[in-house]
Amino acid sequence: MKMLHFTNHAKDRMKERGISREQVDECLNNYQTSYPNANDNMVYIYNLPDGTRVKVVVREKSRDHRVVITVAD
What we know:
Layout: E1 5-6, H1 8-17, H2 21-30, E2 33-36, E3 42-47, E4 53-59, E5 66-72
């Protein structure tokens, strides 16, 4: 996988939702589900050991991958 570049938006959402870069890496390396969204970004979903569901959206078509947003349920 290419180097991840976190957008300011992603950093803000991660801070707001208590998601660490390590959890994003864990999601991207061990996701249970992935699918393209309506904006041609890839969505990766992973359930952390504590039961938190993390969703990471990555813009795959850019020169370097960029994390667009992260969500925790």
